[in-house]
Amino acid sequence: MFTLIGGDGKEYGPATAEQLRSWINAGRANLETKAKLAGETEFRRLGDFPEFGGPATPVEPPPLAGNFNPAPSFAPAAPIPVAAPVELTPADRHTRFLAVLIDTALGALCAMPGALVLGTAFFQIVIDASSGLQPDFTEIDPGRLLLGMALLGLGTFSLLLVQIIMVSMRGQTIGKRLLGIRIVRNLDGSNPGFARAWLLRSLVVGLIGMLIGTLLPMVSNLFPIVNYGFIFRADRRCLHDLIADTKVVKA
Question: What predicted TM-score, i.e. pTM, was given to this entire model?
Answer without folding.
Answer: 0.61
